[in-house]
Amino acid sequence: MQERFDFVASDLTRWRSRLAPLLDGITVLPRRKPVGQLVKSLISGRTKDAVSLAAYRKLGRRFGSAAALSAASPCEVEQVIHNVTFADAKAAWLVAALRQIGRERPDFQLTFLGDLPLAAALAWLENLPGVGRKVAASTLNASTLAQPVFIVDTHVLRVLRRLGFVAANAETRAASEAVTGSRPDWNADDFLLFHIVVKRLGQLLCTFDTPRCELCPLMTDCPMGSRSLN
């Protein structure tokens, strides 16, 4: 049995179909304004979804607008989002990022990003403090901008590495570009739903320490899963 499989774009469609049952019981939230999605994504890294969502809603109740949040001190923000991981660093990044946005876009409207080429929009966002490819892609894809770019978090990256779709040492940017570039025919919803099901797979079955390969819908496509059959 070969240790590494070579996949093509059609495999992504097949995987999405096989993973579709993981959407059962999942409510896809309405798309937020871009600046709201940026805030939510920036505070969500390495934090459970329910915790980051609660923190995001607390920020909304406490500050009410991106402008007011940008005027807050990092300490004030940290007190509100204290339940998320690395709350101190995220609070500092969030305030710095919003202040930079405010200097360039005083109305905090980021709709102009939808008129830029995808690479330019990603680069603009990644120039903000604390914003890497995951946050930038989430801001463009999961917001009302609805841009066709794939979001890669730690769970998704682990699955793509184990499947062999990207190299074992690939990072978030490379993985996002590999999936996005493989499916130029997919729209924003296609990429978002694929992100959700692959993330669920990583959370429930393809876990970091004890993957449950025997239950994985993609086992026969996966080098790790195929070895477990022997």
Descriptive notes:
This protein has 230 residues and is mainly α. The protein has 12 helices and no strands. Helix 2 packs antiparallel against helix 8, helix 5 packs across helix 6 and helix 7 crosses helix 8. The longest helix has 18 residues. It is globular and about 55 Å long. The mean pLDDT is 95.
Layout: helices, strands, pairs:
Blueprint: H1 9-19, H2 34-42, H3 49-63, H4 66-71, H5 74-80, H6 87-104, H7 118-126, H8 133-141, H9 154-163, H10 172-182, H11 188-204, H12 223-229
Number of strands: 0
Residues in β-strands, percent: under 5%
The arrangement of helices and strands along the chain is: HHHHHHHHHHHH
Mean pLDDT: 95
**Helix/strand/pairing class, anyone?**
mainly alpha
Query: Can you tell me the residue ranges where pLDDT is under 50 for at least 5 consecutive residues?
Result: none
Distance linking N and C termini = 9 Å
Name the helicity range: 55-70%
- Work out the helix count: 12
Biggest sheet details = none
Radius of gyration: 18 Å
Judging from the principal axes of the Cα atoms, what is the shape? Answer: globular
